[in-house]
Amino acid sequence: MHSSTLYAALALLPAVLAAPALEKRCTGPGVNQATLSLIESFEGYSATPYSDPSGYPTIGYGHLCSTSSCSEIPYAIPLSDADGQRLLQSDLAVAQNCITNDTGSCVVLNANQYGALVSWAFNVGCGNAASSSLISRLNTCSENTNTVISQELPKWNKSNGQVLAGLTRRRAAEVSLAQTATSAGALPACG
Ligand SMILES: *[C@@H]1O[C@H](CO)[C@@H](O)[C@H](O)[C@H]1NC(C)=O
Ligand SMILES: *[C@@H]1O[C@H](CO)[C@@H](O)[C@H](O)[C@H]1NC(C)=O
């Protein structure tokens, strides 16, 4: 090794050691069509604001609003179909990034397993996903991925402390998507 290269490598070492093990700065890949269809069918679509089963104001494909009129979204209401798709894509990007960032580089997910987890994170929120036993079990990289998914996902059947039949069905659909074999890979997305 050329000595200047060695010095450059040593200079980088402290920065590498200081980085938290799971912190990745990498954009989550997009989900496949099967995932998009699952999310769209469970969220349903509304061009105008409505209250979700737990009473939260919602618009488009399950976009949670911060005001009851959803006036904070950057699109005209009633939403056009094209703006509804844009809102879904921006919400999906958040869920894709959080599943990608929260999983260690030893976690290997195919496109259907990844899509199932993105659907779940989209639904339960990135904070809940990040602190879940599902993610921490995946990050041990010592268990079968579909075993972890099929044991952990169904636990997420409650909203505001109440079991909702729609959530039980959605979790079952996500488990079934994850268990559908595919050769298309999703994670790891970067080194
Ligand atoms: C994950 O990483 C992406 C890409 O750097 C970043 O834009 C995003 O904010 C991160 N998301 C989370 C939840 O940390
Ligand atoms: C909801 O999840 C809990 C925790 O996993 C489980 O014990 C319960 O049977 C589930 N309820 C339904 C109706 O599936």
Q: What do these coordinates show?
A:
Keywords: Antimicrobial, Bacteriolytic enzyme, Glycosidase, Host cytoplasm, Hydrolase, Signal. GO terms for molecular function: lysozyme activity. This is Glycoside hydrolase family 24 protein. It catalyses: Hydrolysis of (1->4)-beta-linkages between N-acetylmuramic acid and N-acetyl-D-glucosamine residues in a peptidoglycan and between N-acetyl-D-glucosamine residues in chitodextrins. With 191 residues, the protein is mainly α. The chain has one domain: Lysozyme (Orthogonal Bundle), CATH 1.10.530. The chain is built from eight helices and seven strands, in the order ααβββαβααααββαβ. The strands form three sheets. A three-stranded antiparallel β-sheet has the order 1-2-3. A hairpin with a 2-residue loop joins strand 5 and strand 6. Helix 2 packs parallel to helix 4 and helix 3 packs across helix 4. The structure holds 2-acetamido-2-deoxy-beta-D-glucopyranose (2 copies). One 2-acetamido-2-deoxy-beta-D-glucopyranose binds next to loops. The site of one 2-acetamido-2-deoxy-beta-D-glucopyranose (NAG) has 7 residues, from helix 3.
Short description:
The protein has helices at 3-18, 33-43, 81-102, 111-124, 126-130, 133-140, 145-152, 165-178, and strands spanning 46-51, 57-60, 63-64, 109-110, 158-159, 162-163, 185-187. The protein is mainly α. It has a three-stranded antiparallel sheet with strand order 1-2-3. The protein has a two-stranded antiparallel ribbon with strand order 4-7. The protein has a two-stranded antiparallel sheet with strand order 5-6.
